[in-house]
Amino acid sequence: MRIKYWFLVFSLIIAFESSVRADPRAFITNQLDNSVSVIDTQSQQVIETIKVEGKPAGVALNQLKKQVYISTPEGGGFAVLDSEKLTKLNKIKVGGASLGITADGKGELVFVADWYENSVTVFDTKNFAKIKTITVGKSPSGMAVSPDNRWLYVANRIDDSISQVDIKKLTIRNTTKVGAHPFGIAVDSQGKRLYSANVESDNVTVLDARSMKRLATIKVGARPYAVSLALNDNLLFVTNQDDSTVSVVDTATLKQIEVIAVGDKPEGISTHPDDQKVYVANWFDNNVSVIDAKTLKVVNTIKTGEGSRAFGEFIAR
Fold first, then answer.
1. Which residues form the signal peptide (predicted)?
2. Does the reported pTM lie above 0.90?
């Protein structure tokens, strides 16, 4: 009887520890520190700092393989991190200046945008062999994958356009003009709408994610950098670099409904899996602002490293 009792207690302890380890973590690239700060989103504290050389900037998640990919523009490639052990596993050479980075929904591919070579290189995630290099528009930056894993979207900054890539064929299906210098992009959870932050025109372009037709243009703050959706896709959050603010857009009316002051030079933005907390990396203030999407208030500020950028989806489940 006592053996069964202690077995039960031990099982409960293991289950509890597993649930604690399962808390989402935010991976914040600190470009000037050559490091990545790891934030435990439950305690909202930095629990580890991982050294990554090459001026780390972009972040991509492989939830299935428990890996995080960090682009290194001055390292000409990307680093592979273990999202559970918080260690660096590998360093992959791409060439040029890699910035935008993302992974497919099946955890089988990683896409790396080369700012100088005007291309996206595709790697498998088994041994990180190069599969193909796709020529896109000038200075590709932000990327996103559709929920059905059919399309890769690439923002071509200098060309003022977004390319739609067929993931199965690894060929471009369509390219659509948007605002001036698109950078961060996001697709909604239904795969219906694509949102593009246009740095030089101070607005957000809304596209039909399938047909790539323009649906609307929304005026936001100065030099919008990146976007993220929250509250069941009902709100869009946009970082405005030169205003040190985040614009909040109602996706039903496609109107800006609020402007939230955050840290200096906000860049990367990502929504917690609870769909309510929105994390913003502030480049000049070396910290992260946490916004409550329901109250539209900043509820916490977390100190990170120097030059926090976190460009991409950076909160691992």
1. 1-22
2. yes
